[in-house]
Design brief:
Bound molecules: 4'-deoxy-4'-aminopyridoxal-5'-phosphate
CATH superfamily of the largest domain: Type I PLP-dependent aspartate aminotransferase-like (Major domain)
Distance between the termini: 37 Å
Radius of gyration: 22 Å
GO biological process, one term: cysteine metabolic process
Largest sheet: 7 strands, mixed
Number of strands: 17
CATH class of the largest domain: Alpha Beta
Strand content: 15-25%
EC number: 2.8.1.7
Helix content: 25-40%
InterPro entries: Aminotrans_V_dom, Aminotrans_V_PyrdxlP_BS, Cys_dSase_SufS, Cysteine_dSase, PyrdxlP-dep_Trfase, PyrdxlP-dep_Trfase_major, PyrdxlP-dep_Trfase_small
Catalytic activity: (sulfur carrier)-H + L-cysteine = (sulfur carrier)-SH + L-alanine
Cofactor: pyridoxal 5'-phosphate
CATH topology of the largest domain: Aspartate Aminotransferase, domain 2
Structural class: alpha/beta
């Protein structure tokens, strides 16, 4: 049992990939912020779909197509319920957070952002919540503004109101920093942005695998998630948008499914959500994602949140005992990520030595180069946690770090 009352032996048994040796050592997987492992229930759902039901959706008249459509639309409803969206049409299936943000930048952004306007982001965004806005601003003649981050790794909220101007067309902010683990106070940010009439997009790539997210409570206008970071397959993600906002978006990609009728002169576009889902979607991915959400609920989202938080605290204390180790990011609210540096040892060398011990972590800039630059570093070591990690995993990491010290002594 974990302190949060999760039956860890049972949970670990649900993830077949964890039970292997890597370089002659039992695998210790601490790279879940990059991608999570998949429970057997998700793998089974994919196998079942391809074994029994595979067909294209929405336009078939035969039984398999009906089943595939039912399962795909069922997955949409499953996501709606999981994030507490009002209507299923507010759930747009995309490839992941990257595609979701690009969709908003190229539809909402291109139709609303013009010369002299501003888009506001923060200093702790992942590249996928920076570059699409840079591209948009360049195209539109607009300016990208940034809420800075302080030395603890928290947003400078004291500057927010002055950065939200009458020219701000959108505020895009991450729920949880993938590089530092900082959890941002989204409800408050949304309230303050809305007070200025500014809509908010929340990048949720690192949130829902750790704690409950209710988009209606947050009141954000857009929320994005990546299935592969929450125990689902790669290639599937979600853009949530308030119906009244999505209804105003111009179509994005053109093609099948997003139309009602096409002549060579004119196309009539489909209703939501199909209008924003051109072409054959990732049917199996959506079904696998729904299975992942069922799995999360079967384990219990509150129990997962308690487990992850407790493990983060244990990990923080354990790392602080390693000589010459400096934890990056000391925000009051953190989730899932332990980012650190070791004196006189490059992050990549730490990663290589840990790999020899069977410990999988990430070393580098974590696609958040501007954030690391503001801390004056080019790379950190990042151990990231998920519901299948245990105190033993942290202990193995710490043993590995002592090996690193020996090698570089
Ligand atoms: N935002 C954050 C905070 C992330 O951690 C990631 C993935 N590392 C992304 C966006 C991009 O997600 P994806 O690669 O699944 O599109």
């Amino acid at each position: 049992m974990s302190g949060a009352n999760l039956d860890m032996a049972r949970i670990r048994a649900d993830f077949p990939i964890l039970h292997q040796e890597v370089r002659g050592r039992p695998l210790v997987y601490l790279d879940s912020a990059a991608t999570t492992q998949k429970p057997q229930a998700v793998i089974d759902a994919l196998v079942r779909y391809y074994t029994h039901d595979n067909a294209n959706v929405h336009r078939g008249v035969h039984a398999l197509s009906e089943r595939a459509t039912h399962a795909y639309e069922g997955a949409r409803e499953r996501v709606r319920k999981f994030i507490n969206a009002r209507e299923a049409k507010e759930i747009i299936f995309v490839r992941g957070c990257t595609e979701a943000i690009n969709l908003v930048a190229q539809t909402y952004g291109r139709s609303r952002v013009g010369p002299g306007d501003e888009v506001l982001i923060t200093g702790m965004e992942h590249h996928s919540d920076i570059v699409p806005w840079q591209m948009l601003c360049q195209h539109a003649g607009a300016t990208l503004k940034v809420v800075p981050v302080d030395e603890r790794g928290e947003l400078r909220l004291d500057l927010l109101d002055s950065l939200l101007t009458e020219r701000t067309r959108l505020f895009a902010v991450t729920h949880v920093s993938n590089a530092l683990g900082t959890v941002n106070p989204i409800r408050e940010l949304v309230r303050r942005a809305h007070a200025r009439g500014v809509p908010v997009l929340v990048d949720g790539a690192q949130a829902m695998q750790h704690f409950r997210v209710d988009v209606r409570e947050l009141d954000c206008d857009f929320y994005t998630l990546s299935g592969h970071k929450m125990f689902g397959p790669t290639g599937i993600g979600v853009l949530y948008g308030k119906a009244e906002v999505l209804e105003t978006l111009p179509p994005w990609q053109g093609g099948g499914d997003m139309i009602l009728s096409v002549t060579l002169d004119k196309t009539v576009y489909n209703r939501l959500p199909y209008r924003l889902e051109a072409g054959t979607p990732d049917i199996s991915g959506a079904i696998g994602l729904a299975a992942a959400l069922d799995y999360l609920d079967s384990v219990g989202r509150d129990a997962i949140a308690a487990h992850d938080q407790e493990l983060l605290e244990y990990g923080t204390q354990a790392l602080e005992s390693v000589p010459g180790l400096r934890i990056m990011g000391k925000a009051k609210e953190r989730s899932g990520v332990l980012s650190f540096l070791m004196e006189d040892v490059h992050a990549h060398d730490v990663g290589t030595i840990l790999d020899r011990e069977g410990v999988a972590i990430r070393a580098g800039h974590h696609c958040a180069q501007p954030l690391l630059a503001c801390f004056g570093v080019a790379a950190t070591v990042r151990a990231s946690l998920a519901l299948y990690n245990t105190r033993e995993d942290i202990d193995a990491l710490v043993r590995g770090l002592h090996k690193v010290r020996e090698v570089f002594a």
